[in-house]
Amino acid sequence: MSSIIFKSGAQLSKKSITIWRIVQLAVWLVGAGILTCLLLFPHLGLLLFWNLLIPIAPFLFVVAVGIWRNVCPLATTNLLPRHLGLSKRKKLTAKQIGIFNVIATFALFIIVPLRHSLFNNNGLATGIMIIIMATIGVTLGFFYEWKSAWCSGLCPVHPVEKLYGGNVFMSMPNANCDNCMNCVIPCPDSTPNINPLSAHKTEYNVLSGIMIIGGLPGFIWGWFHVPDAIAIENIESFLSVYYIPMVGLAITAIVYFNIDRVTKVENKRKLISLFATAGVSCYYWYRLPAWIGFGSFQDDGLLIDLSASLPIWIVPAMRVVTTSFFFYWLVLRKPNKQSWVIRPAFAKKLA
Is residue 244 in a domain? Predict the structure, then answer.
């Protein structure tokens, strides 16, 4: 074992655990409230989920993804069987984890375009999607150890966490795992400066890594060039929400693959950081203007319309600030050897 792993081993005090459980419960209740709104008050639910919670997530992943990993409502639900002693605590093989990561990446690229034609304007559909994910997560929790199957496997958000969370501000305490069972190697939560290709044990890990690193910037660019409210009336209209994002994904994935082939080993991490910067910068390049009424497609992504009270130069100003920040944070800033959360003591050490 490396010295980093041994230095990371730590246990939370009972007081700290209690505080984190209260925070987890509070966030879980907020999530349950948003889900209720999606089902019963869809206009409010859609506003809170797609136009408030989701736009904040990428920034949080870049700066302190460990906070989200500690309080994510789906993770809290997924871990209930483990905390209640109801899990069979099986361990996944490297191949199984790799397959799960590929499925999660494909799920991300399949679900997100459907926002335009279904989820962005349909609270019931969005609520059902969340319920399905929670059901899958808690079901996996009855069989597999800690966060291995859902949070570090099948969750469609996890590939983005690994891409954006490569150089966090600081490590958070681990509020979920009371001891380390080595259920995922390398553990995304406890490995310093993790990235989507840190686990390259199987071809599945490599495939999912290349897809998310290389494909996400073009996918995001393409996604913002498709308007909402495209009705799915036939196969052609169904495929129309995928065409531009998938073309963008293919182009940037091919560019990344070819650059990576001629990049020296010592520079590959910097290349990953550049593509991560391109992805998150592209997201906020389009998302922030749409948030305040300067979007390309009327009310798509609108939180509050300030277009009549703010000068038009605010749009390029926001774009310069966000792109500069992410370039500094992910590319120029020296890796600080911080993991998302502090690894708890190993189970065998506790014994």
Answer: yes
Residue 351 lies in a domain: no
Structural domain boundaries, residue 277: 15-339
240 lies in a domain? yes
Residue 64 counted as domain residue: yes
Question: What does the H/E/C string look like for 134-151?
Answer: HHHHHHHHCCECCCCCHH
Instruction: Write out pLDDT tens, residues 91-142.
Output: 999 899 999 999 999 999 999 999 998 999 999 999 999 999 999 999 999 9
**Contact partners, residue 168, CB within 8 Å, separation at least 6:** 62, 63, 64, 65, 66, 338, 339, 340
Report the domain count for the chain: 1
DSSP 103-165: HHHHHHHHHTTHHHHTGGG-HHHHHHHHHHHHHHHHHHHTTBSTTTTIIIII-TTHHHHHHH-
* pTM score of the predicted model: 0.92
